[in-house]
Amino acid sequence: MLVLGIETSCDETAAAVLSSDKCILSNIVLSQIEEHQPYGGVVPEIAARSHLDHIDRIIKEAMSEAGVTFSQLDGIAVTSGPGLIGGVLVGVMSAKAIAMAHNLPFIAVNHLEGHALTARLSEKISFPYLLLLVSGGHCQLLAVEGIGKYSLYGKTRDDAVGEAFDKSAKMLGIPYPGGPNLEIEAAKGNPDRFPLPRPMFGKPHCDFSFSGLKTAVRVSVEKLPDGPLNVADRADLAASFQHAAADVLADRCKQAITRFKQDYGENRTLVVGGGVASNKHIRATLTNLCETQGMKFAAPPIHLCTDNAAMIAWAGLERLKLGLTDSLDTAARPRWPLESLKE
Ligand code: KG4
Ligand code: ZN
User: Fold this and answer.
1) Does the beta carbon of 180 sit less than 6 angstroms from any atom of ligand 1?
2) Gap between the Cα atoms of 248 and 175, Å rounded
3) What is the predicted pLDDT for the residue at 9?
4) Based on the domain organization, do 78 and 106 belong to the same domain?
């Protein structure tokens, strides 16, 4: 089976072709970093227009690199939400046009399900597993029982962890994209210099909170001399923030692991997915946690953590194999919680 995947829900225009034997035949990702950089974050209108300008070329590139024609495909999978609706619409309309013209099955993929299933593309992981989903817009812990079967254990009560990375980066004068650039700064710094809070640490539930940590970063910056931060202050504060965020994620996972073991028994896997899963310190912290908790740990390769279309093609393939296709009047959705897929 061959599936074309399309992703346009945020600031990456992406297309990929994947075969059912897990071979990524092409995986083209066009990032809009330069277009959003002057504004310090993603501007939805600019993102939508840029997707429109590039989507046809990116799809053509993915098809020619894979060496396949539309008639050889078995389905078209596209992110149909959640995300910035202007961008989502561009991808959905392109996918529908191809599906209609070539009479192919259409699969409306939930972007979060793309992140949730990516680890099954890179490794052999069976259901059920515990999922930590950490991206720019989402921060949640879920039990994954199967395709479309998600039970929410906990989520953030304010900012997503990726958002906290991005906003802290901005306060430290680290350029967009904040998360990956903050990780580079943090590698040069002393994580013990600034004693930052660990919100929700030890609480007997699986929810998160990051706004207090973000405020503490701001207060720490304000206590330093006026003007741009010096190199050491920036690196030390970045490292202190990254360690605090990782400690919080690990502590919340620890709570979730206890609950997950009660629900599904021992010898299971903690999977991490989403853009923040590409952070090496967070991956190492979660690896250590799993060792102490008797859980296996899985994370997709770094280039498949941030938004891409291979993960959408994979989620599409998983759905197609179960006969889960969608009609061409399926709507694009700005919000679409994972746990609602069960209904
Ligand atoms: O999954 P993703 O690419 O897009 C969304 O679905 O939101 O995640 C993007 C988020 C951004 O907040 C970005 O700063 C963060 O993931 N991120 C990172 C790293 N790479 C991306 N955060 C920390 N460390 C990284 N290396
Ligand atoms: Zn994403």
Assistant:
1) yes
2) 24
3) 98
4) yes
